[in-house]
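Fig. S4 source data, part A: sequence.
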Amino acid sequence: MLSARLEGWNLATFAAINADANSPQGLLVLARAVAESAPFVAALMVVLLWVRKGPEVRLRLLDATVTAGIGLCVAQVIARLWYHPRPFELGLGHQYLAHVPEASFPSDHATLLFGLALPLLAAVATREWGLVFLMLALVTAWARIYLGVHFPLDMLGGLGIAIAVWGLVAALRGPLHGRLYPAALGLYDWGLRKLRLPKALFPRR
């Protein structure tokens, strides 16, 4: 009964969000831009923060990267073990973004973006940037439902995975922050020195 109710909510919410023939063309263009570019925008922000900010921010970025990376692996395993078709495979709604027919649950985009956002939100030093990543995740979730390539539960599944994996990463913070991350930061600083990159553009610790 719960599963039927959940799927009913999933379908009804999808129908309420999904664009149709009367949707504004400008909104469709914006949704496509967000849906397709969000991972690249997120990656660019991570790189810029890593280069321009200090070691405290870099530690949190490593948390975010590990969370997102493990989350994507988990999402891929779930998608291979349980296939849930996309809306257009079921003849539901309207599709405004080209996409191959593959498992819709959980959303890789949501898993990645929420996985990046949560660790940054958890630290004072990166909370403002965490809010930026969270907004990007939410807008991307809306866009991919709006364009007809995902269901709402696909996005909630990605969020759930990100929460669970972040809990695991936070529990392992001792060895990660005590041994693994300092080694990564040291390797980065060594690379900067070897390449003699300008400190004005590539701040050291």
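Fig. S4 source data, part B ends here. The chain has one domain: 35-185.
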